[in-house]
Structure prediction request, 331 residues.
Amino acid sequence: MGWLGAVQAQDYAGAKWAVAQRAHGITDTDMDQALADGTILRTHVMRPTWHFVAPVDIRWMLSLTAPHVNALNAYSYRQLGLDDAVFAKSNAVLAKALQGGKQLTRAEVASALQEAGIATNTHNLLHIMGRAELDGIICSGALRGKQHSYALLDERAPQAKTLMRNEALAELAKRYFTSHGPATLKDYIWWSGLAAADVRAGLEMVKSQLMHEVVDGQTYWFAASVPPAKDISQTAYLLPNYDEYIVGYKDRSAVFDTSHPKKLNPRDNVVFNHTIVIGGQIAGTWKRTFKKNTVVIEANPFTSLNKAETHALTTAAERYGTFVNMPVLLS
Prediction:
């Protein structure tokens, strides 16, 4: 988690699988337990959407990204009549309701706000909770059944680091280009949601620790120590929607053939799809359905697969079955 910086996580089930594919032996149950224990947090921190973040990183990361996310939300705040006075009151209510290790579901939080005279229609509540996350008041608690809960950030991440602004700019830039490189400045602007001037300043501070190559007039930055290249031509992955391999970049042309958009979902955007990746390229889409004792994976490749690619896809499906601890049926 810390190596990537943050992992987009509004689709909780998909985000768990995204993390597990980058680790060894992590199961779906392990990820739920990590959320319950607070070893990972799920909160609004960039772009603006939910992300998984390591507790130690949440404070300094919020100090960088929250002002920009709030600026993006400013119009909605005004339309809903949510000003600084309302947010100060709602934050105080939340802090009191959650103190002492309490973890409340969204419905329980809404009740506490209503008792304090704060309107909680759907849009108001979403923005009030999101603002409390950005202000560092609340973050994810444990699951209660299938419902997510909220807890106090101070109690979930008491050891969170704080960094001076320049230190934080440098740290986030280094994390991104080390974990996502080769990547461009535009890719990093998209991923971080920071202002272009802040992105350039961060890169300037760490570029001596990175390498770069210029390809077709574009400068790509990446870690100074690059692992030996592997032959991935016959390796397949079943990536979830919003996976960092795709959503982490502004320009996705290196991994996606733009002749295939009609084979995606109606929104015609690759990031919304569960994608099959073979040999580093997006080769199709997939979906899973849970039956009583089996998880059924329906694969929809863009083109016919050869024997080696089919074997690689089967292996990827079996990895997903291991993750959810269920036999898998690939169709």
In short: The domain at 7-156 is CATH 1.10.10.10 (Arc Repressor Mutant, subunit A). The two ends are 32 Å apart (CA to CA).
